[in-house]
Amino acid sequence: MDTLRIDDDGAARTITLNRPDDLNAINDKLTFELQDALKAVRKDKVRCLVITGAGRAFCAGQDLKSVQGRSGDFDFADALRTRYNPVVSGIRALEIPVIAAINGVAAGAGWSLALACDLRISVSTAKFVSAFGKIGLVPDSGMTQTLPRLVGMARALEIAWIGDPIPAKTALEWGLVNKVVEPDGLAEATRNWAQALAAGPTKGIGLTKRAMYVAWNNSLDQQLDYEAQLQGIAGQTRDYREGVQAFIDKRNPEFLGE
Ligand code: T3D
Question: 3-state SS string over the chain?
């Protein structure tokens, strides 16, 4: 792929956005390659996915240099539906943990991409910039849903309207990232989580992801019933039986993701 690098480390895969000269800004090719890469994750039975950026940025959002050639009646709605939305829904539909390893600035749809991931580890030098408001656009790629759910409505609107860059320290305080590490510690911190998750009971982990996101739209009674349905699936897995047996045997479980 021209715009991405793909690296496997056991059952964990890293997708690196690889346009460092443009801060990994998202052009057409990158969105379509990312869509394909997400489909491959499912096919290749990857058990944990990491998304990161090459160079000094995570991702600067839409490639603004490439929009200059667009015609006056450019169809933005179609562009979002065909380019960005499948990426965001593709990440959410993966029933494995997806970690954003945020190696530098995340702006616009680049920040949305990080927010679409399940867990975020950021370097202390990263900053987060909504960017949409500065060019007269609406936050997209899920940001109008993910952001208020993480930080509350007032902060989400402040981010969208005032638009001051959010430093990593504040992002941690506001719950926008799970962990902040020094730049030279990002690879190790990410690998520790990715390897632990990839060695986990993948089916139960994936169903947990589904349950947590579905819960946003459910009443307590609906959610209790949904949990019962999902436990009916998790309880039939080989990994559940292995987990119980390992407890009885006083040894570490060996989960196979089945
Ligand atoms: O259009 C549609 O289809 C709808 C979809 C929209 C989704 C969106 O994401 S809209 C939002 C688009 N993104 C932005 O508006 C962010 C623009 N960039 C910035 O605000 C800043 O560059 C950053 C905050 C990201 C980083 O600032 P800084 O000071 O660290 O770096 P810089 O000096 O501004 O940029 C360095 C280079 O990267 C520079 O190139 P040069 O001058 O060295 O050749 C700059 O032009 C380039 N760059 C940064 N962002 C983009 C970009 N090139 C293309 N597209 C970018 N988004």
Answer: CCCEEEEEECCEEEEEECCHHHCCCECHHHHHHHHHHHHHHHHCCCCEEEEEECCCEEECCECCCHHHHCCCCCCHHHHHHHHHHHHHHHHHHCCCCEEEEECCEEECHHHHHHHHCCEEEEECCCEEECCCHHHCCCCCCCHHHHHHHHHCHHHHHHHHHCCCCEEHHHHHHCCCCCEEECHHHHHHHHHHHHHHHHCCCHHHHHHHHHHHHHHCCCCHHHHHHHHHHHHHHHCCCHHHHHHHHHHHHCCCCCCCCC
Q: Is the CB of 94 under 6 A from ligand 1?
A: no
CATH number of 202-249, picked from 1.10.12, 1.10.3470, 1.20.120, 3.10.450:
1.10.12
Distance 157 CA to ligand 1 centre (A): 21
Tens digit of each residue's pLDDT (9 = 90 or more) over 91-137: 999 999 999 999 999 999 999 999 999 999 999 999 999 999 999 99
Counting from 1 in the atom list of ligand 1, the atom nearest the Cα of 134 is: 15
To test the ligand 1 pocket, which listed residue (58, 64, 68) has its Cβ within 8 A of the most ligand atoms?
64
Q: Give the model's pLDDT for residue 16.
A: 98
At the fourth CATH level, the homologous superfamily of domain 4-198 is: 2-enoyl-CoA Hydratase; Chain A, domain 1 (3.90.226.10)
What confidence category does residue 71 fall into, taking pLDDT thresholds of 50, 70 and 90?
A: confident
